[in-house]
Amino acid sequence: MSLRQKHRLSFCYCNMGTMRRFFGRRRKPPPEAYQEPAVVRPNPEEELRSLRIRLVQSFVPSVIPSDKGFLPVTEIDKLVNYATIRLVLPEKASTDVFDFVCGHGKTLFLILVVGNEASPNDLLAIMESCRKHSMTDEHLPVDRIPCVGGKLPCHQRVAHHQAWDVFHDKIWAHISFRFFQDQAMFTAPVILKDKFIYELKEGCVLPITKKAQKPHIGHFSTVYEAEVHHAHHQDDRYFGEPLKVALKQLKPLTSEPGYNVETAWNHETSALEEINKLHHKHLIRPLAALRCGSEHYIMFEWADGGSLRELWESQGPEPKDLDPDRIMSVIEEILGIVGALSTLHGTNSRTKTGNVVRRAADLAGMAAGERLTVPVPHSVKPREGETKDYSPITTPDTSKSPRNLPEIQVRFVEPSDDEVSFRSEDPNRSYVSEESDASSDEHWRHGDLKPENILQFNQSQTNNSRWLGTLKIADLGLAKQHVFATARRKDMTNQKFTTSHYEAPEAVANLHLPRSRRFDIWSIGCVILEFVIIILYGNNGLASFYAQLKICENPHTDTLYFTVDRNVARVSDIASHWIAEILNDPECNRAGGSALADIVRLVRDRLLVVELPSENMVPSQISRCRADAGELKEKLEAIWGKAIHDESQRGDYLCFRKDRANIAPPAPLQVMKPKRTAAKSRLGDDLLKTQPNLETVGP
């Protein structure tokens, strides 16, 4: 190759390299280090405003008071958490503040948020101050303390909780008013299982979301049907649901002389708190007693079936066909009520009446009043094909019945309030009166038993066929104390005050003496008799019985069950007439025996008895006095046991003739027997006296 050719080839290579470098793929620049995009922190003011909107939307309206709402406790955790706090508080907030707010100061934080007076920086400063002074949610609500945002001189300082010293910090100077005002919306109480009395601040908000428009209005109180928010109760039966309750509000009654609502509430809550410890199925359960400043409330479980009176009225004017299951359920529920009454009265025999019975028994060398017992609890029936040996019910010996005694005047020995005890012949034995609190054993009395105070609970039914549900004794608040309404009496000639339909005769004949526990036995006897009238004759029959009141001579001292003349009481001719006519009813007057007839005889011979045990009685006399709750329970258990045994034998003890369409109620009594003049005793002052039962006609 010539030199020229070599130079030409070299030139082409050079040009090709130049062209390759010019037109070839360019290299990428070397990669740089990765950088995160800049984080834009949300504005704490905007986050605070958003939290405030969500907080206000979480409030639930309350009806007590009606112009305020409350924050359910379940919403607090939803609103306050670490994520929320980090966005609302300034960036400089420490982890200790986050831990304090989320652990001990959630409610404090939300109260400050809703007030719309604290900025994020203010919130941080206040939370730091609360952590420093150990001011937590447990110290809410806070009373208004003087000199908020500063300190008073030593001689003007007011004692308060140490944690409340936080309010002396300057930061509170411009936000304290709204804090004290708003805290009520965050401190609505939760009705706990193991707490009964709640002392709340004036202006507090109760977690009551609904209240009936038509309450039951009484002289001393008003009772509402109400609902407690589902997050503010611990009743497992209604978990996640509102709890329906009966809310009783006591009236101040400043115009009523001698009455103080504070004292009445204290007495009633004290009685209910003790009675609640009995845990009896047939005693209504009080849930809470709340004092909200000057307002006083007591909360009870709600009876969805209404009162026994309402149950009677729902049965229709005509009697329903007799049904063994219905009659058995009546017997079982009456037995349950009497069992509750026996538990309420207790087993304390060291009362004055109890000592009279025991003393007479000691003198006779025997146990007073031998009773019939059934060794099976009344709530358990024998299984199909199973039979048990029950002691049969015995018909009382009418020759020894108080109905055939001559009319004698009996002085009640129940003591007055200042008569605590009396001594026996044995100087080593002292007897504590029935009204005295010196006895250590629990014993209570109701004092106002009537169909309106016996409530029906349908949700307690375990058997859908049981039409009666569960009956419970209510209005237990004045049990034993009888603070004002049941012990205080006006002049019987005053038209404004009349004797209660179900009161025992000693309420009139022994006007100024305390009531014994046997007072309740008379009342339950009246209720049982009217229940039998409803079963046999329907509401028309009961209305006919009530219409007999018009023939009473003095409506201020006489009832359908007893009449009083000059402080001497006897069983009313009306009650004696109706009992005799019921026992002559085809259902009751039959050779094979009748459960209803045995119940009516029990009412006649052991319950509607005027005479009470007195100091010098012997056992035979005491056995003719009014029964106590223990004896009544045993007698009813015997009737129930016989009914169970007869039912297993396919007998007709519970009912014989089911059709009641052509059976008329008893003919009304036209004229009362004339009252008899009571003699006066000359043992110092005139003594208040009563008489035993009059003779009655019938089996």
Automatic annotation (TrEMBL):
Coiled-coil region(s): none
Disordered: annotated segments: 377-445, 674-699
Regions that span the bilayer: 519-538
Protein's UniProt keywords contain Transmembrane helix: yes
Segments forming domain Protein kinase: 209-608
Keywords: Membrane, Transmembrane, Transmembrane helix
Alphabetized Pfam families for the sequence: Pkinase
InterPro entries, per the entry: Kinase-like_dom_sf, Prot_kinase_dom
Compositionally biased intervals (Polar residues): 392-402, 690-699
Name used for this protein in its record: Protein kinase domain-containing protein
